[in-house]
Amino acid sequence: MVELKNNFKDLIELRAWKQLRQQLMELDPVDVAEIIEDLSDEDDVVIFRLLSREQAKITFQNLTYEKQEQIIEELAQNVNKLSNLLNDLDPDDRTAFFEELPGQVSQRLIQLLTPEERIVATKLLGYPVDSIGRLMTPEYIAVRADFTVAQTLEHIRKFGHDSETLSVIYVIGNNWELIDDIRIREILLAELETPISEIMDNRVVSLNAYEDQETAIRIFQDHDRVVLPVIDTDGVLLGIVTIDDVMDVVEEETTEDFHKFGSFQDAIINPAKAKIPLLYSKRIFWLTVLVFMNVFSGAAIAHFETTISSAVSLLFFLPLLIGSGGNAGAQSATLMIRSLAIGEVLIKDWLRLLGKEFLVALLLGLTMALGVSLIASFRAPEIIAVVAATMVLTVICGSIIGMLLPFLFTKLKLDPATASAPLITSIADITGVVIYFSIASWYLGL
What we know:
CATH class of the largest domain: Mainly Alpha
Helix content: 55-70%
CATH superfamily of the largest domain: SLC41 divalent cation transporters, integral membrane domain
CATH architecture of the largest domain: Orthogonal Bundle
Number of strands: 6
Radius of gyration: 30 Å
CATH topology of the largest domain: Tetracycline Repressor, domain 2
């Protein structure tokens, strides 16, 4: 790929447009997108302008948002080329691009669409952000129940060219309400005179346009589908969502949750291309909050100054003990956040899970206490009981905190991923310090 990219650069310098276009025609659009991502801002738009309309459409859909925006800015100087690109894009991909742009820019680009495509774009953008309606495409094939297989096949030949997928055909009523979906395999294997109503099984699974995109992820997983119909509250068929669109959402949601769990304010799509001010702004808020939270750890340690001065060996085990509590809490939180996100666990399950988590944490704490006791027997045998008891209690507290915070955030209508690892660790640190030195003060009679 590097050699090919260098070859393209040479052809651009030589202005060998005919040879360059010929080589581009032989490449898969996904490979072209990869090459464009690595080219300079001057060269990438040259490559893009030489693509055929079909190649340009697929290539654009495989570019990062940053590169899409940059190419749009360059193409703005050529209204016809830009108009063709926007009209050729699949409606769901075009919607995903528009919703990332400032409102004024989106409105300006919408004006470049044909009247028909403008109606589709405006309708899709009218659905709530992160709703299934933003994901769907209105390009599908629908027939009526009284169609025969022969009529259905003729209908597919006539209108199937613009459909997103032909793997599933939808059956609708007189008012366009969704009745059923039929796999194309069943239609192809049926007799030509067979009415569609005889092939139907009336077990259609659908999505609501106004529901959150995460609902689509769960339904796709539960039913093992590659495409699902989208309806409104009255059951009217509006469009379809395909598995590739859902996989894009899965990637975005996973990235967002992962970044939030690391105490980023928002997801950063590509840190290699993100500018320093952006990286700074996304990270500084939570880090500052955590600094002030850790002040409480320092205050707790200062409060037990007499205890520490009487048994300096306590300090040796302090990082180990409070770190174990934070690690246990981060593990527990990771498990709960994932389970809540994919619907394996509901808020009402918190009490049952609390008991289970307590028993697991107790076993973990006892096992880890044996390990730390072994270390203490060589380093400071006089406080073996202190470090062992502290290990058990800090692991239990850390695990319970890590388990409960995602439930609390969900109950408060907040993203459970915000109960991030550094936040849990900071809370566990404060708790661990208080537990450790309280036990030490009591045990040593200070």
